[in-house]
Specification:
Blueprint: H1 29-47, E1 50-51, H2 52-59, H3 63-76, E2 79-84, E3 94-98, E4 104-110, E5 114-120, E6 126-133, H4 140-161, E7 170-177, H5 202-205, E8 214-218, H6 219-230, E9 239-244, E10 248-254, E11 257-259, H7 290-293, H8 295-306, H9 321-329, H10 333-357, E12 361-365, H11 373-386, H12 389-392, E13 396-399, H13 406-421
Parallel strand pairs: 4-7, 7-8, 9-12, 12-13
Antiparallel strand pairs: 1-3, 2-3, 4-5, 5-6, 9-10, 10-11
Helix pairs in contact: 1-3, 2-3, 6-13, 8-10, 9-10, 10-11
This protein binds zinc ion.
Length: about 425
Amino acid sequence: MTTNPPDQALTVSRAGLLPRRREPGRLDANSMRSRNRSMLLRSIWRDGPTSRADLARHTGLSRSAVSALVEPLIDSGLVEETGRGSSRGGRRPRMLRFVDEAFSVVGIDMGATHISVVVTDMRGRVRAWQRTDRSTREDPHGALQVMRQLVDAARADTGMRTGRMQAGRLLGVGVAVPSPVDPTAPGRLPPFFMPAWRDIDLERDLALSGSPPLLIDNDANLGALAESWWGAGRDGGDLAFIKLGTGIGAGFVIDGHIFRGHNGTAGEIGHLVIDPQGPQCVCGLQGCLSTFIGTPALLAAARAAGSGEPHSLLDDPALDVRRLIAAVQQGDPAARALIERAAGFLGLAVAGLINLINPRTVVLGGELATVGDALLLPLRARVQSRSMWTAVAHSRIIASRLGEQDVALGAATRVMQAALMDPTRFPVEVSP
Ligand SMILES: [Zn+2]
């Protein structure tokens, strides 16, 4: 077993690259070859630079089989030889590494009130980043237009900045959406959450230049994937990601893979009922978590708390989450009390979540999470008082390490994960 070199900026837990299910018992020669090649590619991506001998040792394949399988990967440009490693008695071996710059990957985060786009290399390094505030629910055609513009701008930016990365070699585009995604029709957003998108099929209508392959998933799922690969959960273990925004959503990465549930709606933590007598929710129930700590509810409570209070920082007609956080950081007592109250509501849901799935890490994302300890400390206290001690003792609750890029980076990561699991997704010739 080898580990990633310590100077590598981004490391990744291994679980996300293990096959999810057992392979069928009997495979023909071609399937066997492509399965072995994909295993080698993942091994080189994860552990490289590595030698053919080490690959043979780690995969159980013969030296000659490794050499034969690696040659087409080198010809395709996905893998390159990079100098010689140290000798174990014989000649110093030629080392192999994955070419991180061989492809760029695009991730789009379509939020309810913003759109952002990242371009990354194959190691999750962000090469370009574009973001704009914009409401997306009511105007799908306008939102699609903005996505196309941001993707073109980010890719042009990448091409200009990096001499080596060829902006033309695009592996694919991941799209994060603020609603559950039906795995059988991922481009069709549920009208219940996105009524104006009823006639839109993202796969058909996004129409990016070059028609790259698209993968569409829920934003909290993709935030969870990003944190699990590159952020707060990269040292491994099951992870839950809670996105605090207009709505509240959770995503889970279990054994390295996104857990979606039976038809893609797992993680709708925002509609967990906190108070059956509470405010009416858009979902038809009363007193859902979102009706207490979703951005509109939070800002309404803040305005109510600020009105009439002399010199209150909350008495601001342009109050938004950013200003609310600034008020907390300046010690405004009403703002601090509001966040503490929000932590209490969130704590009920997080305690339930920890009792049910016992994740190693719970990560808070979304703009509100950047308020830090003012939210985290009362949240942890609330969870402690509401969870079974055995479950909570081993779960940590922390804020996102990746900040506002987390979901877009997760969308790109989903594309990388799919290609590393199945190298035929790389748009290159890998001859048999
Ligand atoms: Zn609800």
